[in-house]
Amino acid sequence: MREAQFIKKNKDRWQEMQNNPSNHPDETANEFIQLVEDLGYSKTFYPSTGVVKYLNTEATKRYLHIYVNQKHSWKRVVRFFKTDLPLIVGKHHSMLLISFILFLLFVLIGFFSAKGDESFVRMILGDSYVNMTERNIESGRPFGVYDQGNELVSFLELFMNNVSVGLRAFGGGLLLGIPTIFMVVYNGIMVGAFEYMFYSKGLMADSLLTIMIHGTIELSTLVVAATSGLVLAKSWLFPGTLSRKQAFKTGAKEGVIIAMANFPMLCIAAFFEGFVTRHAGMPIWLKLLIIGASLTLMLGYFVVYPIILRRRK
């Protein structure tokens, strides 16, 4: 094909790209690919001509646009976790506090209910789980339930289960927040009954030191997940000065953002439970270090940092 024919065939498409460049990343990438193909053809058959220079310039523009977008997208991700998300969490600290108090209250209720009625633990945790735990205690492996199965499989199963619980807690906000509150109540009672089971065997300290290796983050994420559901419920139950529709949109958006904050934490909690908690015989100082670091992470990111950030703003 002669150069004139090549230019005539593609001129309109090139001018359209030049005059109306796309801002959509996929379309920009498409334009870049087409221009590079045309540039390769022209370099082969019409080297050192104006069309090569023109196509090279247009292709370079698309490449730089894609590169800048990639840089900006990473900046947006960093900004989201560094600024946007903590500010939204800080905005709803009252809901976070309510979730925490509600959970802690029912942990205590579960503990003292089990203390007052020995059958309560079996009613909450089930006979099979209690029997298995008692056998493990008798054999000198009170936390043997955590060293069963493959580490990676356990990690994946635990992560998916934790994500499911978190999403259900958020989704419960659509039903006046009742399912969300019920989930907090049930899990709080279950934790309280669980801890009493070890307390009654004289293993309370060992239980806390072992289970809180993953439980510090896992239970904290339950409180955060409940917060996301309560934010959603509050938005359309108490819209304030906004229309109910607008308040619901805002609450749904902010609830989703809070729920998203849980995903990295759920991954860490599942990792600890799948890979670390099973080593119940590790030194006490190491257990305390992991628990302390986990507590610092959750309190620092969800409580202290949002307060500091809001004061700066």
Automatic annotation (TrEMBL):
Protein's UniProt keywords contain RNA-binding: no
UniProt keyword list: Membrane, Transmembrane, Transmembrane helix
Residue ranges of the TM segments: 95-114, 174-199, 211-233, 254-272, 284-308
Protein name per Swiss-Prot or TrEMBL: Uncharacterized membrane protein SpoIIM, required for sporulation
Organism: Filimonas lacunae
